[in-house]
Design a protein that fits this description.
This protein is α/β, with parallel strands linked by helices. The protein has 3 domains: about 90 residues, Gyrase A, domain 2; about 240 residues, 3-Layer(aba) Sandwich (Rossmann fold); about 180 residues, Isoleucyl-tRNA Synthetase, Domain 1. Helices cover about 55% and strands about 10% of the residues. The strands form 4 sheets. The chain has a 5-stranded parallel sheet, with helices on both faces. It has a 4-stranded antiparallel sheet with strand order 1-2-4-3. A 3-stranded antiparallel sheet has the order 8-9-10. Strand 8 and strand 9 form a beta hairpin. The longest helix has 25 residues.
């Protein structure tokens, strides 16, 4: 709804500028004043045009105000210093809010823009662990937000099936007395073998040369000889990764295998198209010092085999040809690589990817490593979250049957993990702490509980028939502060979605979900609903709150239990 308010206010300001015969600027800035006494929406347009008008912002604001006619649902506008502050006609606005909140509330109009969003893309050498989870959750949540904002989104997982780690696992299958346990989750079994091969590498440095020979054979000499083993290893690991992701409410539309860019000639074509920029010594590389990057971009090894960076170039070129907008989610340690790749893509005529960089998650006791076998898997994390949620439910709701208790505990546990990670901006370092992530008072469970409260209240009121009332017939006079705050909070949702998509940020949605739950809980605790004089209006408020909280959590990949 605030999107509509901004549009109406912008129309009024533009008409005023035209009537003054002043230049109309394209991006008139609006914000919500910090104090409701200062209005419901404010613009700093006077600052934006002060230099061209060669006048003070205060005088400009007064001049615009003199000729400005407000449009519904505003009732007046005031010039307060350099700002123009718009005040709502609450009755008109609140009716619009309630009418706008349908089951798909938060979904915006189609933008006819294709986005390819790559996320997770963990090496298939073991299970997803806590070090991967921030990438996966940011990526999946962002995909949901972009879809809600009207973009056509395809999520991709880039499968590194030609990396040294996979060759190490193939070496292990050929040389170690190791048999994958068919009763064990496949990615865990692969991870154990990878750990054992690393131990062999420490004991015998020649293993490194043997692994290199396997890679060379797979890429250049006789790929058919090893293709089955490589693909079998990767597929087994991906089976486990997909199982873990599914439980975390994450799916990918497409898995793109790195080897395709060798097999279809894309890498050779890239080397050909870059030949005027390539330098050679023992390796082939791009000298990027003229572009402010001291470290060269190496494209091939000394034996002529390609590197991840070369194949990644081919992958990004494919994405830029297939989409209007290319988005990557990457750890902050990839910043140099992306700077290098961006310049190479410019040489090739590809699109520059938009990248969301995130800082890593650590445990209180330190960092993690798949190579050293020191990590908490996402499966372990989810199991622990489920166990803690179930224990809390047993204390709070001992009357629940076992099946329903497990169902609710799973939703609470997964929601706790996803929300704990989504709530912070990606630039902030994150230490994963069990007690904070799984808090029923401050975490996601408190938001889910607000939804459950709304569902229970509507059920107790037998509200289904009562909610079919014509909104225009309701009395919106004499609303109390908590009702007004709740309505205004509900109204923010679409603009939060739009801005989060535009800025490629997930945490504003998470923060809004907590704000929305807080506004509803204050209303729930202090405002009588069933049997009150305003029962119908207040039941509508409860139902619209339910929809808004549910849809907001859905953008974060979190389910909303009807009961807790």
């Amino acid at each position: 709804m605030y999107r509509i308010l901004e549009k109406n206010a912008r129309n009024s300001v533009e008409k005023a500028l035209k009537s003054l015969e002043w230049e109309v600027i394209e991006d008139i800035a609006f914000e919500q004043p910090p104090n409701p006494n200062m209005g419901d929406l404010a613009t700093s347009v006077a600052f934006q045009i002060a230099s061209q008008r060669k006048s003070s912002p205060v005088d400009i604001a007064k001049r615009i105000k003199e000729v400005l006619n407000v449009e519904s649902p505003f009732k007046k506008v005031e010039s307060i210093g350099p700002y123009l502050n718009f005040f709502l006609d609450n009755e008109t606005f609140f009716k619009l809010v309630l009418k706008s909140v349908q089951e798909n509330y938060g979904s915006l109009e189609d933008k006819n823009t294709k986005v390819i969003l790559e996320h997770t893309s963990a090496n298939p050498n073991g299970p997803l662990h806590i070090g991967h989870i921030r990438n996966a959750i940011i990526g999946d949540s962002l995909a949901r937000i972009l879809k809600a904002a009207g973009f056509q989104v395809e999520t991709q997982y880039y499968v590194n099936d030609m990396g040294r780690q996979i060759a190490m696992i193939v070496w292990g299958l050929q040389n170690l007395d190791y048999h994958l346990n068919p009763d064990e989750k496949s990615d865990i079994a692969i991870g154990k073998l990878y750990f054992e091969v690393n131990q062999e590498l420490k004991a015998d440095p020649d293993v490194k040369n043997q692994v290199s020979a396997i890679l060379r054979t797979y890429e250049e000499e006789n790929p058919e000889k090893l293709e089955f083993m490589f693909k079998n290893v990767v597929n087994k690991c991906l089976e486990g990764v997909k199982e873990t992701s599914h439980r975390l409410q994450i799916t990918h539309d497409r898995f793109v295998w790195e080897s395709q860019f060798i097999r279809d000639g894309s890498v050779n074509l890239i080397m050909e198209n870059l030949k005027d920029h390539i330098s050679h010594n023992d390796v082939s590389y791009l000298d990027l010092t003229d572009y402010g990057i001291e470290k060269e971009l190496i494209l091939t090894r000394s034996d002529g085999t390609s590197l991840y960076t070369t194949r990644d170039l081919a992958y990004h070129l494919q994405k830029s040809e297939q989409a209007d907008w290319v988005v990557d989610v990457l750890g902050s340690d990839h910043k140099l690589a992306i700077d290098q790749l961006t310049i190479a893509l410019e040489f090739l005529g590809g699109k520059t990817p938009e990248v969301i960089f995130y800082e890593f998650i650590t445990l209180p006791e330190g960092s993690m490593s798949t190579r050293k076998g020191v990590f908490i898997s996402v499966d372990q994390l989810m199991d622990e979250a489920f166990a803690r949620a179930q224990s809390e439910l047993e204390d709070r709701r001992p009357e629940l049957n076992e099946s329903l208790s497990k169902e609710i505990a799973e939703k609470i546990g997964i929601g706790a993990i996803r929300y704990f990670i989504a709530r912070l901006s990606p630039e902030k370092h994150l230490v994963f702490k069990w007690d904070e992530a799984l808090s029923f008072e401050r975490g996601c469970a408190s938001i889910q509980y607000a939804h459950a409260r709304a569902c229970k209240l509507l059920e107790n009121a037998s509200a289904k028939d009562k909610l079919s009332v014509e909104i225009d017939t309701l009395d919106f006079s004499d609303l109390n502060t908590l009702e007004i705050d709740l309505l205004k909070t509900i109204a923010k949702f679409t603009s939060i979605v739009e801005n989060s998509a535009k800025d490629l940020r997930v945490h504003p949605i998470a923060q809004y979900a907590m704000e929305m739950a807080g506004a509803f809980n204050k209303f729930y605790k202090s405002v009588p609903v069933i049997g009150s004089e305003k029962e119908i209006l207040r039941l509508l408020l409860v139902d619209k709150s339910r929809i808004t909280i549910r849809n907001c959590l859905d953008l974060l990949g979190i389910e909303s239990p009807d009961s807790m």
